[in-house]
Amino acid sequence: MMASRQPQILYVDARALQDDNYRFRGVGQHSAAILQAIRRFPWPEGRPRIVAVVDPFLAPLAPVHDLLFDEATNLKRARKADGPGWFISLSPMTHDPMKVSGFLLDPDLYRICLFYDLIPLDFPERYLMNPGARSDYLVALAWLRRFDAFASISEFSAQAVIARTGVDPARVFVSNVAVRSELLPRQGDSDIPHDRRRHIVVAGGGDPRKNPECALAAHAASAVLRRQGVSISVFGAYPEPMRDELRTRYRQAGGRPQDLTFHAHLSDEALRALYQSSLVTIVPSRAEGFSIPIVESSAASTPVLASDVGAHPELARDPAWRFGPDDVDALRGQLERLVEDPAAWDGLRRAQADLWQGYTVEAVGQRFMEGVLARVPEPVTTATRPGSPAIQRGARPRIAVLSPLPPAQSGVADYTAMTLAPLKAVAELHVFTPTADARWEEGWASLQPVAAAEFSAIRFDATISVVGNSDHHVEIVDYLLENGGGCIAHDARMINFYYLLRGVPQAMQLASDEMGRPVDQGELTRWLHNQRELPTLFLSEVARASEPLMVHSPTTANEIARLYGKTPRLLPFAQYRRSLLNRLKRADRDRARKALGIPADRVVLVTFGLVSEDKAPLELIWALNMLRSWGVDAELVFCGRNQHMKAQLGALANQLGLVPFVRTFDTAIDDATYDNYLVAADIGVQLRTYQMGGLSGALNDCISAALPSIANAHLAEAMQAPDFVKRVPDGLSSLLIAEAALGILSESERGQRPVAEARAFAETRSPAGYCQALLGHLDIDIDVKAAMVAAGQG
Question: Do 167 and 239 reside in the same domain of the chain?
């Protein structure tokens, strides 16, 4: 294992601090104390960065806990660029270890857990009542062996984990649990004398193993306590039905209803006052890995009677003042002696008075840091470092890709299939897709549905979710948000995805979260139909879940960093279609036009891709109208499925008398027809009504075919398009689009294309180069081109 005595980063499994069952109870309080100790420790080289590894499907960290971390993320494994690191699990037995398996299986990390107890194994009928619960618990128990150090809360728990898991005892130490500083003695405190303490307090809780029944029965059976006027109270979260049951049992045992009270949700100040005024604190549990009420009572200068179980003997050290959890008579005798014999009471109080001093936040934090540092192994040399999973296996890296695939009618599907093809030469590529009839490719290791990714037994070196703004990505986004991993975000905004696919309520909630104010449906709908006014990207969930997050546009990267405080990695937008540069002779153009039924001399403008409002199709029809009014025999082709704007385009074309000169398609365009239009066209036109760094695969196709084109300035710059793409202002004008078309027609002989410029551009946008950059962002160091040559693909 490669570890460091001085880590640069600490990854913390913080799910226990997101879970209402734990975050403000014992586990959460202990976790917070340990994190405070880590922050306060005098690290020789400066405090490491503390990163909370969270589950996006649990509640956010509370503000008081958020302050303990420098960052919160949905990482699934360590970032190698962060340097030497440690991993700390705050509660290894309460949340699914598979969610953090990338950390637990990483030999480069020093892996530490805060260990509490294995009480569910002693009471399976209570905690492990069904096969699912038993299975989950045993799985978590098996994963414990992956930790390098165990900070146990007691010697009792330390021995339990050693006995049950067989871990090396040298890996286990005792840190104990700290009492909250608000409950410690204060200057000026004065002890309340014995004769003014007329009630007993019982440490309870909603869990039956807290066993308040024993204490209540002992009190109810004592005529001495009744005669002395000593009442009893129980603190802990008891719902009213449980209180009623305890009252009934108390009354049946001889107790008077007026002598029993319950306390719930006490503030620290109220709890401290309750301890200080009590004659004695009873801790009657059937099992405990530690017992913070014993320490809290000591800090309040109140003696404790504790059951003789678990870790209690480590805290309540005199066996004469302990009792069996079912021994009502023994407890009754102890209580009667303490109430009738002030000297015995004072002797027990003094014997326990200094107990709390070993359990302050500072003392427990010091033991934790000493125990952890004492068990850090010496760093291994680079030559013997195990390295990545792939290196350990002596094999190519295993990479999982989640993406739509052909024949899905999706530009992202085509893009993934073509641009990631070089990975087959360097990696064991496992593809997970929502496309039911996806085409198998030679060289893939497997092809499975997206649903199989979460349950795959394969340990991947990297996982890449390919995310877009359409219905092809619903399962993929679900996987990403739950499991994290790398992400290639194809779209600069996701409003369509959330509005149309998640539903208006969820879209409104996300918009409100991102804007920091309420967003109503009317405002949301206006943004949907006029996305140039969109003030946010609807990418916060994707950005939070992704590590790394990769985008194709520097503009998009800057916007994401500005809005969400996370800087994505940049991937060059690759040319992914088969090159047409060898099909651009005059004869090729004539054949393509004949196949498409286009007159030889007609000027053909083509816009590629699915027809949608944000691609300004109506402005293009108006531009066509202007060209024809200027005497240009022009035709406009929408080379993509026109599913949602058929009526609008048809009505405008009919109004302007352009129906014979506007082509649209009701169905998807096959590859052969698409290529024919790229060859036959005179001018390509690709527009976007929004300016967020969004890219265009269709403009990429035009560039790869050396087709002189028109694009709005923002899109052209986001694509870093070559000069043969004419820029028009982002405030789209049909007149300026028509004038740009005239400019292209006047600058070169029709049919002549800038092949040399297109070829030079293609050199910088190859799929191999794209994959090389991708692997770099995934911390996988392989020369793609060399591997392709070795595999006969170069």
Answer: no
